[in-house]
Design goal:
Number of helices: 1
InterPro entries: RmlC-like_jellyroll, RmlC_Cupin_sf, UGlyAH_Cupin_dom
Distance between the termini: 36 Å
CATH topology of the largest domain: Jelly Rolls
Pfam family, one: Cupin_3
Helix content: under 10%
CATH architecture of the largest domain: Sandwich
Number of domains: 2
Strand order of the largest sheet: 2-21-18-23-16-15-14
Largest sheet: 7 strands, antiparallel
Organism: Sphingosinicella microcystinivorans
Radius of gyration: 17 Å
CATH superfamily of the largest domain: Jelly Rolls
Protein name: Cupin
Oligomer: single chain
Order of helices and strands: EEHEEEEEEEEEEEEEEEEEEEEE
Shape: globular
Length: 236
Amino acid sequence: MSAIVDQQVAAVVDMRAYAAGTSPSSDWLGGRATPAFSDAAAEIASIALRGEGEVAALPTDEFILVLAGRLEIESSHGALVLGPDDTGVIPYGSSFRWRSSDDMLAIVYAAPTDRAGSATAPLLIDKDAPLGPSNPPATENLLSEVPTCRGFSDYTSANAEFACGTWDSTPYHRRQIPYRQVELMLLLAGKVTFSDENSSVSFSKGDVCMFVRGDGCAWLSTEYVKKVFATQRPLN
């Protein structure tokens, strides 16, 4: 389940490796590790919450991916319970109490905004959601036949730039292209190899990786792939 690395691929980060050794904290907003990525539109960091606490009003949209342990989020809308490899969204402005196990470790993807998007209550990402047609990579970037891609967004931000959900695809090979987006990905099925002019890295079921804005990388999958995603991509 661990990533296979030839050398470092600049556009890709192994998030389980990044999160290892995160210092415990009882502060939801202030207790996060140095971000794996941060700019004005997105911040992705690990957190190892301990005990319980309260957030009066969340200042961003947040996607949570639990790597280990258990996290409970209680709001006026009910309880959201996340275990290992569960993912959820807490919209901007949410008020909630949280409680964690003593081994809790998670990745938090925060996307600044000024209002909630397609939901106003914390929600679980449905890994079994019905998937609809999704645009495949542009044909000019493909080094293989055009794949069949499907997707479902459980949450979309108010400005439509931040989205979280599930996606799958038949095998394909795409050349290296620049990335405008910042994406966090949990692989639910299959294996993908990412490469640039210097190196390559392969991720398989259970791995968590992040792709950053910049020069990007190539994608090669030789089998069916399914993922949970959270991505921030400017519209313009």
